[in-house]
Amino acid sequence: MKKNEFHEEFIKGIWRDNPVFVQVLGMCPMLAVTNSAINAIAMGMATFFVLVGSSFLVSTFRHLIPKQVRISCFIIIIATFVTIADYTLLALVPAVHKELGAFIPLIVANCLILGRQEAFASRYPTKLAVMDAMGMASGFLLALLSLGSVREILGDGALFGMKLFGENFEPWVIMILPPGGFLTLGVILLFFNWFRLKKDEFLEDVAAAERGGN
Amino acid sequence: MNAPTDSGASGSMRLVLTLAIAGLVSGIAIIGIYESTLPTITANKARELREAVFKVLPGVSQMQALVYRDGELVAVDRPDKDEPVVYGGYDEHSAFVGYAMPGAGPGFQDTIALLYGYRPDEKNVVGMEILESRETPGLGDKIYKDAVFVSGFSALSVEPEIVAVKKGTKSRPNEIDAITGATISSKAVVRIINETHADWSAQLPEPGSEPRLEATETAGTEADQ
């Protein structure tokens, strides 16, 4: 039971409550930095680090933080982790940092992170909060990666900088530009909602069949 | 830390204290990460600058920093902080080729810092490299990603000044095609070069009387890695 619960907190962020495709949170970095798969991964990893770190601290100190100043405390914690991520990326991978530019400091404003602190980490024990944060961050990373891959393949004819098609491929430039982000995201959201609708219908059918059988 | 008693009855002292402690811990963490990454970041920046100097000045294999002191341009090992500096580029026979001039100014989002190569004998800009920019991904960042735009700076006259024109309408040696969709960023690059050139033009010596190479810094990229 206990093990199942951990598992559940992790899995829900990846599929059922995916922060991007289901909760539609964190749209700013989602649309801004997904013009290539490598940018998407760097952004996803930075967000992962910040979200898991903040959730761990917030959950550990949740009894010590007074209700009145909790949001300010969350933001201080998040901002500290973002600064750490910012300098680490700048020191280790300057090229990626240059590419992501202003969007690293803007992780502070990602409503997905503050949202998880308020809705989950500040109410649940540390272990569950970390599992939840890891699930949500992985879900975010996967969403960024799928959008980034689609856009890079269509807009640049490449994946992770490797050319996939021959010389004759004409890149669909609009896919790397902002409209491409909206288009791709729209199509993916369409798929997710269609899938959900089908699933609900299927569950209803099963329930009806069971009622009929009895 | 004092244990919490009742969050409703807790006085404002406790709120102040919590935020103060959080701020203090956060401050220490940020100083720690800043101090520990600073040497790597400075080294990266210095290497990037050297590579950029060799890139914007074709044919250059040695460089030295030059500053303007007491009415003339002199070579220095390490320029003072906040002192304007240009880099002299020299070929393998230590003959002067041109200057690599750093410039910075406001772009569309944030400050753009760049380096451009300038040959005083030709009065031409011979190369341009963006060192730092936070221009819009996909649009403004074309000032360094768009190969056509960047190569437009490989032979560009600064007389009377550089002008950014609509794409495809370049007709004079001092004109450059702006990037469609990133006009503000392209114009910012041109403006930064013009301003830097105007600032320095009176301080640069006559062509032919540039400072001689003193330090022996060579283009040993393999030594940096």
Brief descriptors of the model:
heterodimer, A: 214 residues, mainly alpha, two-stranded antiparallel ribbon, 8 helices, flat, B: 225 residues, alpha+beta, seven-stranded antiparallel sheet, two-stranded parallel sheet, 5 helices, disordered C terminus
Plain-language structure description:
The complex is a heterodimer of chains A (214) and B (225). Chain A has 214 residues and is mostly helical. Chain A has one domain (2-213). Helices cover 71% and strands 2% of the residues of chain A. Chain A is built from eight helices and two strands. Chain A has helices at residues 2-14, 27-32, 37-60, 70-92, 94-100, 111-121, 126-156, 178-213; strands at residues 158-159, 162-163. Chain A is flat and about 60 Å long. The mean pLDDT of chain A is 86. Chain B has one domain (42-217). Helices cover 34% and strands 25% of the residues of chain B. Chain B is built from five helices and nine strands; from the N terminus they run H-E-E-E-E-E-E-H-H-E-E-E-H-H. In chain B, the strands form two sheets. Chain B has a seven-stranded antiparallel sheet. A two-stranded parallel sheet of chain B has the order 8-9. In chain B, strand 3 (85-90) and strand 4 form a beta hairpin. At the A-B interface, helix 4 and helix 5 of A face helix 1 of B.
